[in-house]
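Handoff note, outgoing to incoming analyst
You'll be picking up this chain. Sequence as last confirmed:
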Amino acid sequence: MATTRIIPASSITPGPATIIVTLPGRQTIRSRVFMVELRPHGVVQVAFTSGDMITLSARTMVGSIERPTRRRPPRPPSLSNAS
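Most recent structure output, in case you need it:
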């Protein structure tokens, strides 16, 4: 089950979570964050893996969807060919 949160832009970090940003007069960006740069005067610049790059106020709220990581079952021990 995915965890959905609303977070301020200042707490965005690169990683596997999908960030959702709706901009006026433009399509919604729904992508993973590639890079975040905190700039002076409360500005956050965000680059997405989709190729989009936006500048937000540090207090802008965005949606974050974190999917649980899949845990792989342990591999059975391999049998060696003892001759």
